[in-house]
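Example 9 (inverse folding). The structure is encoded as follows.
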């Protein structure tokens, strides 16, 4: 993953995102007791802060130093419950069995041989923990010269890779976005996977 590309994107504007937590996170996670959470591709930190304000201890990871600095500077009222970390989780997996929640929202998770990066993220979910994956629905994605939508995971792809003896899929669906699409895009639907690791 190209850290320079993402740094340049974040530096191009004072704020990229709304500053509000992703609605899928709010909808799907409100009923969970707080524990250890991994926020994959945390960006400007709204999800991490929202989780921390609800008692979660959050490891918020992004490849962009600019995004992390912006997130840490803006974060208030969380009493050290977020650890901001720069890393590329597509090449360096997080610790295994370490998290009660692994939250992956709109993270460009490209397919790799053997699904290496994906398995690293799945393995980070501890027994009884939750995987929450949300992305733009495939129907809303348009391939172009520098982007092939088929190279990136959709929730249904991940669901089919989960061992049914080790995971319970609670949600695997496409739903209308709860917030307006980002400017200049036509994203109208979210594709969502929520699964609990059994063992």
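The amino acid assigned to each position is listed next.
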């Amino acid at each position: 993953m190209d850290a320079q590309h993402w740094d340049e994107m974040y530096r191009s504007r004072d704020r990229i995102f709304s500053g509000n937590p992703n609605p899928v996170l709010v909808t799907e996670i409100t009923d969970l007791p707080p524990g250890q959470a991994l926020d994959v591709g945390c960006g400007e930190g709204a999800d991490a802060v929202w989780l921390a304000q609800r008692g979660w201890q959050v490891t918020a990871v992004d490849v962009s130093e600019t995004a992390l600095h912006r997130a840490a500077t803006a974060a208030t009222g969380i009493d050290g419950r977020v650890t901001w970390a720069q890393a590329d989780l597509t090449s360096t997996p997080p610790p295994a069995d370490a998290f009660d929640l692994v939250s992956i929202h709109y993270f460009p998770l490209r397919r790799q041989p053997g699904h290496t990066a994906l398995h690293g993220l799945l393995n980070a979910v501890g027994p009884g923990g939750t995987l929450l994956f949300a992305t733009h629905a495939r129907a809303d994605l348009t391939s172009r010269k520098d982007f092939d939508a088929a190279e990136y995971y959709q929730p249904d792809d991940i669901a089919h890779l989960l061992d049914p003896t080790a995971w319970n899929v609670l949600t695997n669906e496409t739903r209308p976005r709860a917030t307006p699409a980002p400017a200049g895009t036509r994203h109208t639907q979210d594709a969502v996977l929520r699964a609990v690791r059994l063992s």
